[in-house]
Amino acid sequence: MIKKALLAAVAIAGGWFAYKRLQADKAEQNLWAEATDPVPPSGGAR
């Protein structure tokens, strides 16, 4: 019984860490996309 509870706790913790890692990777990807997004021409220069 204790082994099953421990296994469930490890699985839940692993899932939580994987979720947090995916969220961090997505945030970093969005940051890079914003930083490397080309700036549209201003239209004022002729």
Task: Tell me briefly what this model is.
The chain is mainly α. It has one helix at residues 2-35.
Structure description:
With 46 residues, the protein is mainly α. 74% of the residues lie in helices and 0% in strands. The protein is built from one helix and no strands. It has one helix at 2-35. The longest helix has 34 residues, at 2-35. The model has no long low-confidence stretch (mean pLDDT 90). InterPro entries: DLW39-like.
SSE order in H/E notation?
Answer: H
Binned strand content: under 5%
Overall strand count: 0
Beginning-to-end CA distance, first to last residue:
77 Å
Approximate shape: rod-shaped
Low-confidence stretches: none
Q: Tally the helices: what do you get?
A: 1
Helix/strand/pairing category: mainly alpha
Helix content percent band: over 70%
- What kind of sheet is the major sheet? none
Mean pLDDT: 90
Rg, Cα atoms, Å: 22 Å
InterPro entries: DLW39-like
Using brief descriptors, characterize the structure shown:
mainly alpha, 46 residues
In terms of topology, how is this protein built?
Blueprint: H1 2-35
